[in-house]
Write a structure and sequence with these properties.
This protein is an alpha/beta fold. It has helices at about 1-20, 20-40, 60-65, 85-90, 110-120, 140-175, 175-180, 185-215, 225-245, 250-270, 280-285, 290-305, 315-335; strands at about 50-55, 70-75, 95, 100-105, 130-135.
Protein backbone atom coordinates (compact mmCIF):
# COMPACT_ATOMS: atom_id res chain seq x y z
CA UNK A 1 0.00 0.00 0.00
CA UNK A 2 2.62 2.54 1.07
CA UNK A 3 4.81 1.64 -1.91
CA UNK A 4 2.00 2.61 -4.29
CA UNK A 5 1.25 5.79 -2.34
CA UNK A 6 4.94 6.74 -2.45
CA UNK A 7 5.11 6.12 -6.21
CA UNK A 8 2.08 8.38 -6.81
CA UNK A 9 3.54 10.95 -4.41
CA UNK A 10 6.84 11.11 -6.33
CA UNK A 11 5.06 11.23 -9.69
CA UNK A 12 2.90 14.18 -8.64
CA UNK A 13 5.89 16.11 -7.24
CA UNK A 14 7.87 15.51 -10.42
CA UNK A 15 4.98 16.78 -12.52
CA UNK A 16 4.71 19.92 -10.39
CA UNK A 17 8.41 20.80 -10.54
CA UNK A 18 8.51 20.22 -14.30
CA UNK A 19 5.79 22.84 -14.72
CA UNK A 20 8.14 25.78 -14.24
CA UNK A 21 5.51 28.45 -14.87
CA UNK A 22 3.26 27.11 -12.08
CA UNK A 23 6.21 26.80 -9.71
CA UNK A 24 7.36 30.36 -10.43
CA UNK A 25 3.85 31.75 -9.98
CA UNK A 26 3.43 30.04 -6.59
CA UNK A 27 6.61 31.75 -5.39
CA UNK A 28 6.41 35.10 -7.20
CA UNK A 29 2.78 36.05 -6.51
CA UNK A 30 2.97 36.38 -2.69
CA UNK A 31 6.35 38.10 -2.90
CA UNK A 32 5.01 40.71 -5.33
CA UNK A 33 1.93 41.29 -3.16
CA UNK A 34 3.96 41.72 0.02
CA UNK A 35 6.37 44.20 -1.59
CA UNK A 36 3.49 46.16 -3.11
CA UNK A 37 1.64 46.53 0.17
CA UNK A 38 4.82 47.21 2.11
CA UNK A 39 5.55 50.36 0.12
CA UNK A 40 2.04 51.38 -0.89
CA UNK A 41 0.32 51.19 2.50
CA UNK A 42 3.01 51.88 5.05
CA UNK A 43 1.51 55.25 6.01
CA UNK A 44 -2.10 55.54 7.08
CA UNK A 45 -4.31 58.23 5.61
CA UNK A 46 -4.40 60.92 8.38
CA UNK A 47 -7.89 62.03 7.37
CA UNK A 48 -9.54 58.76 8.30
CA UNK A 49 -10.24 57.90 11.94
CA UNK A 50 -11.95 55.01 13.70
CA UNK A 51 -13.87 55.49 16.93
CA UNK A 52 -15.53 52.59 18.76
CA UNK A 53 -18.73 53.60 20.58
CA UNK A 54 -20.49 51.56 23.23
CA UNK A 55 -23.86 50.65 21.75
CA UNK A 56 -27.16 51.99 23.13
CA UNK A 57 -25.46 55.20 24.20
CA UNK A 58 -27.68 58.19 25.07
CA UNK A 59 -27.99 60.82 22.36
CA UNK A 60 -27.29 64.35 23.58
CA UNK A 61 -26.00 67.56 22.05
CA UNK A 62 -22.37 66.64 22.57
CA UNK A 63 -22.84 63.22 21.03
CA UNK A 64 -24.68 64.65 18.04
CA UNK A 65 -21.87 67.15 17.41
CA UNK A 66 -19.23 64.46 17.75
CA UNK A 67 -21.02 62.00 15.44
CA UNK A 68 -21.48 64.71 12.83
CA UNK A 69 -17.70 65.19 12.56
CA UNK A 70 -16.45 64.31 9.10
CA UNK A 71 -13.77 61.71 8.36
CA UNK A 72 -14.59 59.66 11.47
CA UNK A 73 -15.90 56.12 11.14
CA UNK A 74 -17.95 55.08 14.16
CA UNK A 75 -18.08 51.42 15.17
CA UNK A 76 -20.71 50.12 17.59
CA UNK A 77 -19.39 47.70 20.22
CA UNK A 78 -20.97 45.75 23.09
CA UNK A 79 -17.94 45.45 25.34
CA UNK A 80 -14.84 47.57 25.78
CA UNK A 81 -12.28 44.93 26.75
CA UNK A 82 -12.37 43.18 23.37
CA UNK A 83 -11.60 46.38 21.41
CA UNK A 84 -8.79 47.78 23.58
CA UNK A 85 -6.07 45.62 21.93
CA UNK A 86 -6.95 47.33 18.63
CA UNK A 87 -6.37 50.72 20.29
CA UNK A 88 -2.99 49.46 21.50
CA UNK A 89 -2.09 48.47 17.93
CA UNK A 90 -3.37 51.76 16.43
CA UNK A 91 -6.09 49.93 14.49
CA UNK A 92 -8.81 51.88 16.34
CA UNK A 93 -8.10 55.48 17.33
CA UNK A 94 -10.45 55.77 20.31
CA UNK A 95 -12.96 53.86 22.41
CA UNK A 96 -15.69 56.05 23.90
CA UNK A 97 -18.36 55.13 26.44
CA UNK A 98 -20.94 57.98 26.49
CA UNK A 99 -22.70 56.37 29.46
CA UNK A 100 -19.79 57.09 31.79
CA UNK A 101 -17.89 59.75 29.84
CA UNK A 102 -14.76 57.58 29.77
CA UNK A 103 -12.65 57.28 26.63
CA UNK A 104 -9.51 55.33 25.80
CA UNK A 105 -6.73 56.44 23.48
CA UNK A 106 -3.17 55.37 22.76
CA UNK A 107 -0.80 58.04 24.02
CA UNK A 108 1.59 57.38 21.13
CA UNK A 109 -1.08 57.57 18.41
CA UNK A 110 -1.27 60.83 16.39
CA UNK A 111 -4.78 59.91 15.27
CA UNK A 112 -5.84 59.30 18.85
CA UNK A 113 -4.58 62.74 19.86
CA UNK A 114 -6.59 64.45 17.10
CA UNK A 115 -9.77 62.48 17.80
CA UNK A 116 -9.48 63.37 21.49
CA UNK A 117 -9.38 67.08 20.63
CA UNK A 118 -12.46 66.66 18.44
CA UNK A 119 -14.31 64.86 21.23
CA UNK A 120 -13.45 67.55 23.81
CA UNK A 121 -14.53 70.29 21.39
CA UNK A 122 -17.86 68.55 20.73
CA UNK A 123 -18.62 68.31 24.46
CA UNK A 124 -17.19 71.74 25.38
CA UNK A 125 -20.58 73.42 25.96
CA UNK A 126 -22.48 70.40 27.25
CA UNK A 127 -21.28 70.46 30.85
CA UNK A 128 -20.58 66.73 30.51
CA UNK A 129 -17.42 65.52 32.22
CA UNK A 130 -15.06 63.42 30.11
CA UNK A 131 -12.44 61.13 31.63
CA UNK A 132 -9.31 60.12 29.77
CA UNK A 133 -7.82 56.60 29.94
CA UNK A 134 -4.48 55.84 28.32
CA UNK A 135 -3.34 52.55 26.82
CA UNK A 136 0.11 51.67 25.57
CA UNK A 137 1.25 49.74 22.55
CA UNK A 138 3.31 50.02 19.38
CA UNK A 139 1.78 50.70 16.02
CA UNK A 140 1.31 47.66 13.82
CA UNK A 141 2.52 48.30 10.29
CA UNK A 142 0.11 47.31 7.57
CA UNK A 143 2.66 44.85 6.22
CA UNK A 144 2.84 43.16 9.65
CA UNK A 145 -0.93 42.84 9.66
CA UNK A 146 -1.34 41.68 6.05
CA UNK A 147 1.46 39.09 5.80
CA UNK A 148 -0.41 36.30 7.67
CA UNK A 149 -3.30 36.79 5.26
CA UNK A 150 -1.04 36.77 2.19
CA UNK A 151 0.58 33.49 3.24
CA UNK A 152 -2.86 32.02 3.97
CA UNK A 153 -4.15 33.19 0.60
CA UNK A 154 -1.21 31.60 -1.20
CA UNK A 155 -1.94 28.34 0.61
CA UNK A 156 -5.58 28.61 -0.46
CA UNK A 157 -4.75 29.01 -4.17
CA UNK A 158 -2.21 26.19 -4.08
CA UNK A 159 -4.52 23.85 -2.18
CA UNK A 160 -7.71 24.42 -4.15
CA UNK A 161 -6.27 24.48 -7.65
CA UNK A 162 -3.39 22.08 -6.92
CA UNK A 163 -5.87 19.39 -5.91
CA UNK A 164 -9.16 20.36 -7.53
CA UNK A 165 -7.95 21.31 -10.98
CA UNK A 166 -5.30 18.58 -11.25
CA UNK A 167 -7.64 15.69 -10.37
CA UNK A 168 -10.26 16.96 -12.82
CA UNK A 169 -7.60 17.17 -15.52
CA UNK A 170 -6.50 13.60 -14.73
CA UNK A 171 -10.11 12.44 -15.09
CA UNK A 172 -10.59 14.30 -18.38
CA UNK A 173 -7.33 12.94 -19.86
CA UNK A 174 -8.17 9.38 -18.84
CA UNK A 175 -5.34 9.08 -16.32
CA UNK A 176 -7.73 8.07 -13.53
CA UNK A 177 -9.34 5.48 -15.80
CA UNK A 178 -5.95 3.86 -16.41
CA UNK A 179 -5.07 4.01 -12.70
CA UNK A 180 -8.29 2.22 -11.90
CA UNK A 181 -7.01 -0.79 -13.84
CA UNK A 182 -3.99 -0.98 -11.52
CA UNK A 183 -3.91 -2.28 -7.92
CA UNK A 184 -4.12 1.36 -6.71
CA UNK A 185 -7.23 2.03 -4.62
CA UNK A 186 -9.06 5.35 -4.41
CA UNK A 187 -7.88 5.78 -0.82
CA UNK A 188 -4.26 5.31 -1.86
CA UNK A 189 -4.60 7.72 -4.77
CA UNK A 190 -6.26 10.45 -2.68
CA UNK A 191 -3.76 9.98 0.17
CA UNK A 192 -0.85 10.43 -2.25
CA UNK A 193 -2.41 13.56 -3.75
CA UNK A 194 -3.09 15.09 -0.34
CA UNK A 195 0.40 14.34 1.00
CA UNK A 196 2.06 15.61 -2.15
CA UNK A 197 0.15 18.89 -2.14
CA UNK A 198 0.57 19.35 1.64
CA UNK A 199 4.34 18.87 1.45
CA UNK A 200 4.68 21.30 -1.44
CA UNK A 201 2.51 23.95 0.22
CA UNK A 202 4.44 23.83 3.47
CA UNK A 203 7.87 23.89 1.84
CA UNK A 204 7.10 26.64 -0.68
CA UNK A 205 5.38 28.89 1.85
CA UNK A 206 8.06 28.29 4.50
CA UNK A 207 10.68 29.48 2.01
CA UNK A 208 8.54 32.52 1.17
CA UNK A 209 8.02 33.28 4.88
CA UNK A 210 11.73 33.06 5.72
CA UNK A 211 12.82 35.01 2.65
CA UNK A 212 10.31 37.84 3.14
CA UNK A 213 11.15 38.07 6.86
CA UNK A 214 14.76 38.71 5.87
CA UNK A 215 13.80 41.64 3.63
CA UNK A 216 10.74 43.09 5.41
CA UNK A 217 11.49 42.11 9.05
CA UNK A 218 7.86 41.68 10.06
CA UNK A 219 6.59 40.91 13.56
CA UNK A 220 6.74 37.41 15.00
CA UNK A 221 5.87 37.48 18.70
CA UNK A 222 4.60 33.91 19.00
CA UNK A 223 5.95 30.42 18.48
CA UNK A 224 7.11 29.31 15.06
CA UNK A 225 5.92 25.78 15.86
CA UNK A 226 2.41 27.04 16.67
CA UNK A 227 2.34 29.04 13.44
CA UNK A 228 3.54 26.02 11.45
CA UNK A 229 0.80 23.91 13.05
CA UNK A 230 -1.87 26.47 12.08
CA UNK A 231 -0.69 26.59 8.47
CA UNK A 232 -0.45 22.78 8.33
CA UNK A 233 -4.00 22.25 9.58
CA UNK A 234 -5.23 25.08 7.35
CA UNK A 235 -3.54 23.50 4.34
CA UNK A 236 -5.20 20.15 5.05
CA UNK A 237 -8.62 21.83 5.38
CA UNK A 238 -8.26 23.72 2.09
CA UNK A 239 -6.91 20.62 0.30
CA UNK A 240 -10.01 18.71 1.43
CA UNK A 241 -12.10 21.60 0.10
CA UNK A 242 -10.52 21.19 -3.33
CA UNK A 243 -10.99 17.44 -3.11
CA UNK A 244 -14.76 17.81 -2.72
CA UNK A 245 -14.90 19.96 -5.88
CA UNK A 246 -12.81 17.50 -7.88
CA UNK A 247 -14.45 14.31 -6.62
CA UNK A 248 -16.90 13.88 -9.52
CA UNK A 249 -16.44 16.72 -12.02
CA UNK A 250 -14.86 15.89 -15.39
CA UNK A 251 -14.95 19.35 -17.01
CA UNK A 252 -12.00 21.68 -16.39
CA UNK A 253 -14.19 24.71 -17.16
CA UNK A 254 -16.77 23.73 -14.53
CA UNK A 255 -14.03 22.96 -11.99
CA UNK A 256 -12.35 26.29 -12.65
CA UNK A 257 -15.65 28.12 -12.14
CA UNK A 258 -16.45 26.30 -8.90
CA UNK A 259 -12.95 26.82 -7.51
CA UNK A 260 -13.12 30.53 -8.28
CA UNK A 261 -16.60 30.66 -6.72
CA UNK A 262 -15.10 29.27 -3.52
CA UNK A 263 -11.78 31.13 -3.50
CA UNK A 264 -12.78 34.70 -4.37
CA UNK A 265 -15.36 35.17 -1.57
CA UNK A 266 -12.80 33.75 0.86
CA UNK A 267 -10.16 36.16 -0.38
CA UNK A 268 -12.35 39.24 0.15
CA UNK A 269 -14.42 38.20 3.18
CA UNK A 270 -11.78 36.51 5.34
CA UNK A 271 -10.10 39.73 6.48
CA UNK A 272 -6.94 39.29 4.41
CA UNK A 273 -6.68 42.84 3.06
CA UNK A 274 -8.80 44.81 5.52
CA UNK A 275 -10.34 44.35 8.94
CA UNK A 276 -14.01 43.37 9.10
CA UNK A 277 -14.37 45.51 12.21
CA UNK A 278 -17.40 47.71 11.61
CA UNK A 279 -18.65 45.60 8.69
CA UNK A 280 -22.27 44.47 8.56
CA UNK A 281 -22.99 41.76 11.19
CA UNK A 282 -24.15 39.24 8.57
CA UNK A 283 -20.82 39.61 6.76
CA UNK A 284 -18.88 38.97 9.97
CA UNK A 285 -20.98 35.86 10.68
CA UNK A 286 -20.61 34.57 7.13
CA UNK A 287 -16.82 34.98 7.37
CA UNK A 288 -16.78 32.54 10.31
CA UNK A 289 -17.81 29.63 8.07
CA UNK A 290 -14.86 30.23 5.73
CA UNK A 291 -11.72 28.21 6.59
CA UNK A 292 -9.46 31.01 5.37
CA UNK A 293 -10.87 33.30 8.10
CA UNK A 294 -9.75 30.92 10.84
CA UNK A 295 -6.31 30.38 9.29
CA UNK A 296 -5.69 34.12 8.93
CA UNK A 297 -7.04 35.05 12.37
CA UNK A 298 -5.08 32.32 14.14
CA UNK A 299 -1.86 33.27 12.31
CA UNK A 300 -2.34 36.95 13.18
CA UNK A 301 -2.97 36.19 16.84
CA UNK A 302 0.25 34.18 17.00
CA UNK A 303 2.43 36.57 14.99
CA UNK A 304 1.14 39.90 16.32
CA UNK A 305 -0.28 39.13 19.78
CA UNK A 306 2.07 36.29 20.70
CA UNK A 307 -0.86 33.93 21.34
CA UNK A 308 -0.29 30.26 22.13
CA UNK A 309 -2.19 27.17 21.06
CA UNK A 310 -4.68 27.60 23.90
CA UNK A 311 -5.65 31.06 22.61
CA UNK A 312 -6.17 29.83 19.04
CA UNK A 313 -7.74 26.49 20.00
CA UNK A 314 -11.16 27.58 18.73
CA UNK A 315 -9.75 28.23 15.25
CA UNK A 316 -7.88 24.91 15.25
CA UNK A 317 -11.01 23.05 16.34
CA UNK A 318 -13.07 24.55 13.50
CA UNK A 319 -10.36 23.75 10.94
CA UNK A 320 -10.05 20.20 12.25
CA UNK A 321 -13.79 19.54 12.10
CA UNK A 322 -14.04 21.06 8.61
CA UNK A 323 -11.17 18.86 7.42
CA UNK A 324 -12.78 15.66 8.71
CA UNK A 325 -16.19 16.48 7.23
CA UNK A 326 -14.84 17.59 3.85
CA UNK A 327 -12.47 14.63 3.58
CA UNK A 328 -15.31 12.21 4.34
CA UNK A 329 -17.57 13.83 1.73
CA UNK A 330 -14.81 13.90 -0.89
CA UNK A 331 -13.88 10.26 -0.34
CA UNK A 332 -17.51 9.15 -0.45
CA UNK A 333 -18.42 10.86 -3.72
CA UNK A 334 -15.09 10.30 -5.52
CA UNK A 335 -15.23 8.48 -8.83
CA UNK A 336 -12.51 7.40 -11.25
CA UNK A 337 -14.35 8.26 -14.47
Amino acid sequence: MWTRIYALFVARNTEFFRDQSALAWNVALPILIIFAFTYAFTDENPEKFKVALVSNAPINAGMEDFKSTRYIRFIDIDEIASILPKVERHQVDMVFDPNTGRYWINQTSPNGYIVEKLLIAAYANSGYQLRQNLVQGDEIRYVDWVIPGVISMNIMWGALFGIGYVIVRYRKMGVLKRLRATPVTSVEFLTAQILSRLWLLLVVNSIIFIGMDFFVDFRMNGSYFDLFLVFTLGSICLICCGLVVAARISSEEVANGLLNLISWPMMFLSGIWFSLEGAHPWMQKFALILPLTHITDAAREIMIDGAGLAQVADHLLVLGLMSVVLLYIGAKIFRWE
